[in-house]
Amino acid sequence: MCQACSPRPTADGSFAETMVDTFNKSAVALMVSIGHRTGLFDAMDGLEPSTSQQVADAAGLNERYVREWLGAMTTGGVVHHDRSANTFWLPAEHAEFLTRRSTSGNLAVTAQFIAVLADVETEIVDCFRNGGGVPYERFPRFHEVMAEESEQTVVAALTEHILPLAPEALQRLSAGIDVLDAGCGRGHALLHLAAQYPRSRFVGFDLSEQAVGYANAEAERRGLTNARFERRDLTAFHPDRRFDLVTSFDAIHDQADPAGMLRGIHAALRPEGVYLAQDIAGASRIGDNMQTPLAPFIYTISCMHCMTVSLAQGGAGLGAAWGEQLASRMLREAGFDRVDLHRLEHDIMNVFYVARRN
Predict the structure, then answer these.
(1) Do both 97 and 123 map to the same domain?
(2) How confident is the model over 286-297, as a mean pLDDT?
(3) Last residue within a domain, chosen from 101, 131, 162
(4) Per-residue pLDDT at 11
(5) Are residues 133 and 274 in the same domain?
(6) Are residues 177 and 243 in the same domain?
(7) Which of 210, 246, 252, 212 is nearest to 234 (CA)?
């Protein structure tokens, strides 16, 4: 057994136990990601207690790999196991949080970030030594995973929970207004709105050519002539048109120049316009985040993506953990006189800012 797995105990053994628990949970997170990507959780959803071969057959996968995956899921407490019959099943209460039919939020989607970030570990280590950053292009699956996450935290909640935070914009969408999504990624939120409000006009800006190409192709596939997407570097955002509503979803903090982008958004709004932003929940000071849900995850994803992609552009490297105090201050410095902060029950990782010019 490796020395790391048999640590010399401290006085009470608590830290050693914490680290072993961390290793196990990290391993489970990686295997949960694999379970999502291979469709294993969906195949096991509602399946009677089954052998590893039966699970593999249901998912159309190789039995040997499925058997080892089941070992991780069983010892990790995700899958239940009948030792005498050597069968496995996914409890319904677990399936509710791990399958594509979930209505409570598929946490297996979020687990994918562990593997995505690990893919650039060597380059991040080099940045620790030499500075600089890792560019967007080195994260080929990031937009794909973010789009899945967005479907749950943004798209599914847009009409019922998020848009009502800006009632003046919501009331006018049916009649027809101009909407910009800054940092739109694959455009899922904007495409959803374009389908729901055909009289309004929607534009999405994003630095990633791949993401913009995907969004335009999807708009064409759905026949949405009121939505289009442009590759736009928002480092120095100088708007050439005006909008009634500007949105950004988890996009400001990883820009090269977040302050400049906020000033550009302010300038892009018509006098009665409103800016609606989703960003990471938490405080601006590390010591104030000890009780923040998912704080270690937020700092990790910041270090290994949000901060580093900004630094790769020679940017500010603000990071995902910039915090509510700094975000509110920067919004006011950008020219917004009124900034309201909202929390929604369905989303423990994010907060929502509604900023107005008046």
Answers:
(1) no
(2) 95
(3) 101
(4) 54
(5) yes
(6) yes
(7) 252
CB contact set of 304 (below 8 Å; sequence gap of 6+)? 117, 120, 121, 124, 134
Specify if 86 maps to a domain: yes
Arithmetic mean of pLDDT over the chain? 93
Structural domain containing residue 41: 3-101
Q: 250 in a domain, yes or no? A: yes
3-state secondary structure 271-339: EEEEEEEEEECCCCCHHHHCCCCCHHHHHHHHHHHHHHHHHHCCCCCCCHHHHHHHHHHHHHHCCCCEE
Q: 303-313 burial, b if ≥16 CB within 10 A, otherwise e? A: bbbbbbbbbbb
Instruction: Report whether pLDDT(108) > 70.
Output: yes
Cα–Cα dist 253/266, whole Å: 16
Please determine, for residue 327, whether its predicted confidence score (pLDDT) is greater than 50.
yes
Prediction pTM value: 0.90
- 308 within a domain of the structure (yes/no): yes
